[in-house]
Design a protein that fits this description.
The chain has helices at residues 19-37, 42-48, 53-81, 83-103, 109-136, 139-169, 175-201, 214-221, 225-244, 246-253, 257-279, 284-304, 309-336, 343-372, 374-401. By secondary structure, it is an all-alpha fold. α14 packs antiparallel against α15.
Length: 416
């Protein structure tokens, strides 16, 4: 599909962001992301209360409802009070969810309410972070800064389960990890509140029209940004399934689950921070073919190579490389292939797709594990990875079957 062209009326930022301001933004993102990272410990929390993976998946997926709603509303909230202040408010909901997981019994209606609270906080923050970056970074450098922000967030996500592992090694209760995450989230929120006044005072934040409407969604899905939104939904499901139930997988095969999160986090962060700029200067579709194939190989390794902790760690590293860089590429494509007037809406729909996958799939995965074992869940994840590869292959083949109009060739990514 060809990109829909419209005349832009979105104001241009008065100045590019100071690198120190962006570093502060990344620090805030790192701290708030810890609150989501500790949710990968929910299966352990539920198990200690006598529950199983199906119940854990239900709790995680409860966040889907509130997340979808907040992604839709976050553009309106951003237009009303500004993205930085909206993220600061979101930190309070993330903190409340952390305290809820720590002190509310992990079975019953109360814990479902905690899951809904998590979706409010994480949905708002995750959706508005890229929009905040896009509002203060010129297009030529935007994708690179997306990768840097997502790398910081991935660091926080990866640190969450590691905090939990350290706490259990110190013979403390797992609930303390959720309390630590709540405190970190509030610290991140204060940073974003400070950032709002800092950027507003120097005139670096301009109004952005971010509201989602049916017209905006239709325009986005008529463009090539549609492919990135579908792929991030699939990628979110893969990441959500593997991460949310990694404690169950590791327990079955006698691994230390922290090896997965350490390997995944190190690979994803290093790739996003050090390699994303190089990759994004190349043909993005060809790069995606390589990256989705790496993700596929890692999943095959999780299924077949279950006897060695070293291979377990290496599989996690491969997943971090494939998934980590795929996310950065498709995030940039979603912004650059959307109609110019609807770039913020494309980013919100991109976030919405991610959340449907990352929060929705654990409900399916948890029931699969209870009914048929963890291998059945992995086979479904493998099918999802094959589907992602098929989308990229279709885009490559379409170049030869259709006129090459508005197909990305990497040239507009120079200078990133």
């Amino acid at each position: 599909m060809n990109k829909v062209k419209t005349k832009t009326n979105i104001p241009v930022p008065k100045a590019t962001v100071d690198i120190r301001d962006f570093a502060v933004l990344c620090l805030g993102g790192f701290l708030m992301s810890i609150a989501y990272g500790v949710t990968f410990l929910i299966p352990l929390l539920v198990e200690m209360s006598g529950g199983d993976e199906a119940q854990a998946g239900l709790i995680i997926s409860a966040a889907t409802l509130s997340t979808v709603l907040l992604v839709i509303l976050s553009g309106h909230i951003s237009d009303l009070i500004g993205p930085s202040r909206a993220v600061a408010i979101a930190s309070i909901f993330l903190a409340l969810s952390g305290m809820g997981f720590a002190f509310v019994p992990s079975v019953g209606a109360g814990i479902m309410l905690v899951g809904l609270t998590l979706g409010v906080g994480w949905g708002t923050f995750y959706s508005l972070g890229p929009i905040l970056v896009a509002s203060i970074i010129e297009p030529a450098r935007r994708i690179r800064f997306f990768a840097l922000l997502s790398g910081s967030m991935m660091a926080g996500i990866g640190v969450g389960p590691i905090i939990g592992r350290l706490i259990t090694l110190w013979s403390l209760t797992i609930e303390i990890a959720f309390v630590v995450a709540a405190i970190a989230s509030l610290m991140g929120g204060m940073i974003f509140l400070w950032l709002h006044y800092r950027l507003a005072n120097v005139g670096k934040v301009t109004p952005h029209l971010s509201k989602i409407s049916m017209v905006a969604a239709a325009q986005v899905f008529r463009s090539n940004a549609m492919y990135s939104i579908i792929m991030v939904t699939i990628g979110g499901a893969i990441f959500g399934g593997l991460s949310s139930f990694q404690t169950s997988y590791a327990q079955i095969y006698g691994f230390d689950y922290s090896l997965f999160f350490i390997g995944f986090m190190i690979a994803a962060i290093l790739c996003r921070l050090l390699l994303a700029g190089y990759v994004l200067k190349r043909d993005p579709i060809k790069c995606l073919m390589v990256l989705t194939s790496i993700t596929l190989v890692s999943i095959v390794m999780f299924i077949t190579l279950t006897h060695s902790p070293v291979l377990y760690f290496f599989s996690a590293c491969l997943l971090g490389v494939g998934y980590g860089l795929t996310y950065s590429v498709i995030n940039g494509l979603a912004a650059n292939e959307a109609p110019t007037d609807y770039m913020p809406q494309a980013l919100l729909l991109f976030s919405l797709g991610y959340f449907i996958g990352v929060f929705g799939f654990p409900l399916v995965a948890g029931n699969l594990i209870v009914a048929s074992g963890v291998d059945s869940m992995l086979l479904v994840v493998l099918v999802l990875a094959l589907s992602s590869c098929a989308i990229v292959l279709f885009r490559l083949v379409s170049r030869f079957a259709l006129p090459r109009i508005n197909e990305p060739d990497g040239t507009d990514l120079d200078g990133i």
